[in-house]
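Team,

Forwarding the record for the chain on the shared tracking sheet. I've put the sequence and predicted structure together so nobody has to dig through attachments.
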Amino acid sequence: MHYKGHDIKRIFGPAVRSARPLIVLLLLKGSFCFGISEEKEYEAAWQLCQTGKYPQAAEAYKKYLSRHPRGKFIPEARFTLARIETSGNNAFGHYQFILDNYPAHSLASQASYATAQYLHNVGSAAQARERYLYTYSRYGSAPAGRESLSKLALMALGSDSLSKAEAYVNAYLDQYPRAPGGAALLNVLAGYWQQKGDNARAKEHWRRIMDLFPGTPESGSAREYLIAALTQENQDGSQDDGSLSEAGPDNDLSRQAEMTQPPNVDQPPAPEEPAPLSFYYLQIGAYNNKAIMDGWAKKVRAEGFDTVVEEVKEGRGTIYKLQAGPYENSSELKKAQQSLKDKFGLKTMVVER
């Protein structure tokens, strides 16, 4: 059957006019779907991570990056790719991309610290030192910046750059006066001088620990070392400089040394190398599935908590210990512990690392 032009218009015209609202609605709906397709694509890659399908997740993230070069989840995709990449060079590239293009993003400080760690691990000490310094300078208020300053102090001490090490430690104490890492750094310096046989310098740092960080494990250790040092000096017939009374509540250490130490007690052996830094955290959980751990980390960070992950090799696998912190005093620690319990029902434990 053939229709003339006016017949087609007469027959189909009313249908087309009545369908116009539906056509517009479908077009709007389609554009809306296209608008959230990026989010769905990113979420699909994330779901693959959560199920432990890391090779597939890596491919999905790479496709997302290719399809959405200016997408709104670029930093998150790059950061996750860096974590699941089997190649250290590729991971470094993803972290560096975040630093180059999104330096103000919340993940940038961690990305910067990760690149410094990578350079340190592969033996590029000079480049690692520069990157730690950049991380501290650019992100000093973040945990990554604070830990970078600690790394700089330890690297300087390891290369016998005493003036730099002292400067970094003093900067740490000035900028983070209540952070537990300050006591650990002073303890490292004391151990260094004790190893070198300079007990006067060692005692100076032990006294600072007792003055600045009373009640900490490092303060207790410092007190014991001071008592042992005085005992040894008394046995050698030497006199202390009399300034020990400035060490706060332990102002009669000389007398305590005579009462608590038997005669001819040898001085505790000096450590072969500086003790590692200690920080205090709340352990949220230990996971053998990194994706599940990442999911919890994302939830916890969304509520304003800082998180770190400790990776422990166990057989052929890895255990990921998710921890919140660090915290500077017991009141902050208890407050955070209660908050994690109220918000997520999590029963956390205090750990030192």
